[in-house]
Design a protein that fits this description.
Largest sheet: 4 strands, antiparallel
CATH topology of one domain: Nuclear Transport Factor 2, Chain: A
Strand order of the largest sheet: 1-2-3-4
Shape: globular
Helix content: 10-25%
Number of strands: 4
Strand content: 15-25%
Amino acid sequence: MIRTTLLTLALFASTIAAVPPGGGTGPGGGPVAQPQQPPPAPAPPPVAPVPAQTGATPSPDPAMLAQAKNVFAQLQSGKLDRLLLTTEMNTALTDDKLATVKSSIGTLGAPVSFEQEHAGTQTGLRYGVYLVTFSNGAKLDFLIGIDGQGKIAGMRLTPMQ
């Protein structure tokens, strides 16, 4: 089973009871009960820009595919060559997070297929999204982003339903 961690953002709105002009007094001088209106819907959270697609996804870059497969195997083993990562990525991917990834995907075995779904460039990073399929039928999307020096600047694993 593939475990995922969900980050849930909660937006709160407060309701303020409005008193109508003129004091809003009822019989006996008490306040008139005002129907409460539901609070306005909160603005949706900002969404990261989606890379512009300019037609079909380019043919897989053999070097990037090999790097993605290599890094994925390292994630499964829980032993990652940290020299492959940017400084920021190395800091973000703690040993505890790496252990969590290993416990989630380490028991799936070697992938039976590793197919590019998307590729492109965004904010100076080359990226590839790969559909990784296992013999038990489990499928993951694996995104990897590479900076101009060939270092891994980002990764994401998403289970497919």
